[in-house]
């Protein structure tokens, strides 16, 4: 069974400005004077180069003496090596001495890296690149010897910032909070996955309030590409062993990154190195290994030699392969046209590596085997294939997964939800949290206590609920609930109360404290209204979680393909994947409310079926974004129509529509109104067609 989502998009009239910056980089650079920056942009948007521009300005014009770049793993270090910027119009080049890029030295000994970090701090060198782990250990050493003030004149950039957590158990988070609280150094956080609403948010609200945020969506990124014009998201379903499905998926002519299944998943059928060997056997005949790079050499039936980088084998040879990859796949962006560089490696096979931040511009196909329960992981892997490069008009992400063994329409609906969730995440939309709104229910109200408002929101009436008495309180109840929920979950987990403390007392104590701490200027009535709405959200989430657990337990046999006991013949049936696509889409509550059908046709066969999707072009992608925005924003028809003349005037003056991610509050509100109006128009057209 195959499911393909195609994204096609145009190219902008000018890919870069006079300083060699893409649109996102220019937007980030415009905010360079901020002490604390938070850049949220999808994979392959050019965040590393945006950092280079800002860091050079910090050191040349903002009295920052040093720049420290922290990445989650060594393979990402190549994205921050020395880069020519002056040839494209910028005032200086990004220069990193090889010995100060601690990701590329080939030395994995942490103690030597910490010593190198300490030496860097004492030297006249300006730029250092290291892993998150090295930074944590080196920070402790530097502070022990010199105090935290040693970082006062530094500019510290943290790539893949979603690794940071507000939890006290997250060491990197603790360090960054200390630096933010001191307010002496400058910081920049970069991520393509900044999902909120869990028990441990990335940043605590009081810390995040100090950051200037720049948001850039995938739709905006698509318009700036010069070469890459189409993205396919492909779901292929196999039966039995996943090697059975490789014939329809793995094309040796495509530059491919293969991620084999997690070791605890049911798709993993053998030792990890044996699985890699079977993939190589599928490709051709193993004829040796390059002694310089460590790449495996596979001869294809037609005689061509493939160069395969094996990152799964964690033996002594992996260091050679990692170093070679850092050297061979260096560089990024759309200016490269060197076929010799393209030919340096053909296929990369990985397990836990080569995901976030991994920079291989020539990658055309990201093949992921096995179900992934993390949407963040999926989006990061997709980003490995979506870098712009000459001669690369199309890229594909394929998830090769076991057939769930359920009805065609069930899988089709799940795939459709999955595609909407992926699209929404690439658009930087929150797709993992439910949308509930609460209102004061009076006696005699004829509405159902729980109903839909027709705009994708679940309306719940509560007797005695205090309505927000002011616009400020209304704004908090409508826009800040995700952040408050995260703070409340964390506080409830850590709060120690007497065993006989009534739940309602605990709720009042903890939630009131959270709101008063975050909003100390609120009146008592404003605070209580926000507390009641927060308590209502928490109660609904608790009920939903219990219901989901109950429903999942009852449906486990269907969803996972597991027997409740035995089949009709008295024989046990085979087990299925523990993290199936159908289970995963249960998390995407928002996307189920979005009336966007990405499925074009369903073709049933005797032993399998396939689902073909519509082609998701730029226009339809924009429609997905409008639908998601319309669900999450509070907008009335009166306000939208009032803003319509302004929207038309803006479009005439600027030659574009208002930007949802604009730092200008009025432009952002016009964009939200336009999205709301588009969704309402589409709804009326659908109703008229019935």
Features:
alpha/beta, 11-stranded mixed sheet, globular
Folded structure, characterized:
This protein is of the alpha/beta class and 690 residues long. Helices cover 39% and strands 16% of the residues. It contains 21 helices and 20 strands. The strands form 3 sheets. Strands 10-11-12-13-9-14-15-8-1-20-19 form an 11-stranded mixed sheet, with helices on both faces. Strands 4-3-5-6-2-7 form a 6-stranded parallel sheet, sandwiched between helices. Strands 16-18-17 form a 3-stranded mixed sheet, covered by helices on one side. α11 links the parallel β14 (365-369) and β15. α14 crosses α16. The longest helix is centred in the last third of the chain and has 37 residues, at 524-560. The two termini are 31 Å apart.
Structure at a glance:
With 690 residues, the chain is α/β, with parallel strands linked by helices. The chain is built from 21 helices and 20 strands.
Task: Reconstruct the topology from this structure.
Blueprint: E1 2-8, H1 23-30, E2 36-40, H2 47-61, E3 66-71, H3 110-122, E4 127-131, H4 132-146, E5 154-158, H5 171-182, E6 186-191, H6 205-208, E7 212-215, H7 218-223, E8 230-238, E9 256-259, H8 272-283, E10 285-289, E11 296-299, E12 305-310, H9 318-328, H10 339-342, E13 347-350, E14 365-369, H11 375-382, E15 394-402, H12 408-426, E16 436-440, E17 450-452, E18 458-462, H13 471-479, H14 481-494, H15 503-518, H16 524-560, H17 581-584, H18 589-592, E19 599-604, E20 609-617, H19 618-632, H20 637-654, H21 665-689
Parallel strand pairs: 1-20, 2-6, 2-7, 3-4, 3-5, 5-6, 8-15, 9-13, 9-14, 12-13, 14-15, 16-18
Antiparallel strand pairs: 1-8, 10-11, 11-12, 17-18, 19-20
Helix pairs in contact: 1-2, 3-4, 11-12, 13-16, 14-15, 14-16, 15-16, 19-21, 20-21
